[in-house]
Design a protein that fits this description.
InterPro entries: KFase/CYL, KFase_sf. This protein has about 230 residues and is α/β, with parallel strands linked by helices. It has five helices and twelve strands. Residues about 1-5 have low confidence and may be disordered. Bound molecules: zinc ion.
Length: about 230
C-alpha cells in the first residue's frame, strides 16, 4: 500500500517566521519582515525580509564551522527529502542537562546511513521565551557515536546541540559538521511525529527543504514529516 497523501497526514515541524515570536541565537541578526508595497497604495502586496541564515527552523551546513566545508547550496536535495526518521523521546531531560549516549543507545539498532535522528526534548513549547535559552544539550561523545552509527543528519527542537557559552564550546557542531553531517535546529511538533512513530506498521519520513543560498552556511527550512505504511 502506498502512503496516504492527504493533507492532514503531513506534520509541519517548522516554527512560523513571526518577528513577534522568535528566539534568535545571541549575536545573530534580527528577523525583520515588513510591507514594501501594499494593495491600497501600490495595487499589489510585497514584503521586505531581513533574516540570518540560522533564524527559525533551519539547517546548519558544514561551512557554518568548517573552512572549505560544503555550503547549503552544495547539499544534494536528495539527502534532505523523504529521509527515514527516528524520534527519540528525551522529555525527561532537565534544562541545562546533558544528553549522553546512555539516553540514545537503545535506539542504536535503528540508526543507519540515511536516517535522520530527531531529538525530542519538548523545548519547542518555550519558543520565543527566555526559557528557550537554557535547554538540554548533546554530549560530544554521543554525537561521535551517532555519526559512527552512520547517521548524518541530527535534528533538535532546541536552539543548538551545544550549550550556549558552555565549557565545551561548539564541540557538537564541530563534530557533526566536521564529518560532513548536517544539524537541523529549532524544530517543533516532534511530539506529533513521535505519536505517528508509535503506530504499528508505519515508517516515518521527513523532509527539510532549504533555500539554495549560494555560498551560505545554512538556511531556514520548511521541515515536515509524514508516515509511510510499510505493509
Ligand atoms: Zn544553525
Amino acid at each position: 500500500m502506498m502512503s496516504s497523501s492527504s493533507e492532514s497526514s503531513v506534520i509541519d515541524l517548522t516554527h512560523p517566521l513571526d518577528p513577534s515570536k522568535v528566539t534568535i541565537y545571541p549575536g545573530d541578526p534580527q528577523l525583520i519582515c515588513r510591507p514594501a508595497a501594499t494593495i491600497p497604495q501600490d495595487g499589489y502586496s510585497v514584503h521586505s525580509l531581513s533574516i540570518g541564515t540560522h533564524t527559525g527552523t533551519h539547517i546548519d551546513a558544514p561551512s557554518h564551522f568548517i573552512v572549505n566545508g560544503a555550503s547549503i547550496d552544495q547539499i544534494p536535495l536528495g539527502a534532505l527529502i523523504a529521509c527515514p526518521a527516528i524520534v527519540i523521546d528525551l522529555t525527561y531531560k532537565e534544562a541545562g542537562s546533558k544528553i549522553v549516549w546512555d539516553d540514545l543507545a537503545k535506539y542504536s539498532s535503528k540508526m543507519k546511513e540515511g536516517t535522520m535522528l530527531l531529538l525530542y526534548t519538548g523545548w519547542s513549547t518555550h519558543w520565543g521565551t527566555n526559557a528557550y535559552m537554557k535547554y538540554p544539550y548533546l554530549d560530544r561523545n554521543a554525537a561521535e557515536k551517532i555519526l559512527a552509527a552512520g547517521v548524518k543528519i541530527v535534528g533538535l527542537d532546541t536552539l543548538s546541540p551545544d550549550e550556549i557559552d558552555g565549557p565545551e564550546g561548539y564541540g557538537v557542531h564541530e563534530t557533526i559538521l566536521g564529518a560532513g553531517g548536517l544539524i537541523v535546529e529549532n524544530l517543533t511538533n516532534l511530539n506529533a511525529l513521535l505519536e505517528l512513530e508509535e503506530e504499528n506498521g508505519t515508517e516515518l519520513l521527513t523532509s527539510v527543504v532549504p533555500l539554495s543560498l549560494t555560498g551560505c552556511d545554512g538556511s531556514p527550512v520548511r521541515a515536515f514529516g509524514w508516515k509511510c505504511a510499510t505493509v
